[in-house]
Amino acid sequence: MKSLFEDEVMTYVPPRxxxxxxxxxxxxxxxxxxxxxxxxLKPGGRxxxxxxxxxDFEAKLRTFYRKLESKGYGQGPHKLRLxxxxxxxxxxxxxxxxxxxxxDLQRCRLNIVWDTEDGLDYGGPSRExxxxxxxxxxxxxxxxxxxxxxxxYTVQIAPxxxxxxxxxxxxxxxxxxxxxxxxxxxxxxxxxxxxxxxxALLRLPVSLSDLESLxxxxxxxxxxxxxxxxxxxxxxxxxFTVTEERSDGTSxxxxxxxxxxxxxxxxxxxxxxxxRIIKWRLERGVLExxxxxxRGFNEVVDHRLxxxxxxxxxELVISGTVxxxxxxxxxxxxxxxxxxxxxxxxxxxxxxxxRMSNEQRLRLLQFVTGTSSIPHDGFAGLRGSNGLxxxxxxxxxxxxxxxxxxxxxxxxxxxxxxxxxxxxxxxVLAVEETNTxxxx
Length: 440
Hints:
Layout: H1 6-11, E1 28-29, E2 35-36, E3 40-41, E4 47-48, H2 57-70, E5 79-84, H3 89-99, H4 102-107, E6 109-114, H5 124-137, E7 145-147, E8 155-157, H6 168-185, H7 195-202, H8 216-227, E9 241-245, E10 251-255, H9 270-283, H10 287-300, H11 303-306, H12 311-319, H13 326-331, E11 333-336, H14 344-355, H15 358-369, E12 383-384, E13 387-388, E14 391-395, E15 404-406, E16 411-414, H16 420-432
Parallel strand pairs: 5-6, 11-14, 14-16
Antiparallel strand pairs: 1-2, 3-4, 7-8, 9-10, 12-13, 15-16
Pfam families: HECT
Region (Disordered): 14-47
Domain HECT: 101-440
């Protein structure tokens, strides 16, 4: 299914298109929806710099697990015994986990028994269980999930539900329970999901930047609408409807709000239109599956407890903080705009990377590429919107600007800062504040 209005929007030129801001004048998105976080505008347009907002991820994690323990999560005294066969792992896990009560899922300690390998579970069997189960359950080959549009190492819920399973929604509920159990018992999953997926688990609103890795052309269309005065675009004829093409070749007009076909998109209501069409695009075909998955997740862990995390942090909790190989990263980075490997700003950049903790490095990777996942073949396997695309650092802007990112290109726009300390401060500020921005 796809929207039919992108081509018209992207080829239309209004009488007075808004000029792009000068580099470094304000925070916002780059040509590919690049994030440029870190500030607000006072009346009159003057940019106000904010002090870095530090997120102590490890402290949040400790607090989260202390709360789980204090509320009895996974403490017993009873055990949840899951007997599974290696050759029928997913089916056996579904039968056992879906038969368990909500209280048992929350309170019981896990006891994984593989085939005839009976014995005490001190963590090894459970760790292997979640690793192997996640590899199979969230694999696109099961047709419940699919690779996201731009890469082959993050997955999302598939909009086309398998037609050979009458109980498919129960399977999404099962997937949510698996996520919750792994979180409660502190086992990592061998799966990385898209940012909207983690936001759904946290019940957080989606934003324009969440579209970039899923549908780059649609994202570009909405950026065009955001950056142009719609009062000068009457010939475009946009209203609060969207035309959706179905898999059977038919199409249908969907109203984004009551009486939407009679409401013209103007500069005044443009923000409302963008909010609604973003929500429609991200929920299209997956709303029911997502609701059942989140239901299963919350049957294991109370949503108020996980609310301490943002989407980036939840990704790290569920899929792990993979240790980044800085030498591999640098060896597979390219430069543009006058930068090169021996440029003093680039030398400072890599010195800053060495100075960062691994969690900060993962944050930076999320900021630039949209995910903390690293391909099995390392940074050489990074993918962008059009296949393989290496990490890139481009010279951009002035020394008072913050770095910005273009996730569809894996590109970091890095201003030529005067000292290593300024570079470190600006980079940390940009990375730490990305989640405070929506479509502004």
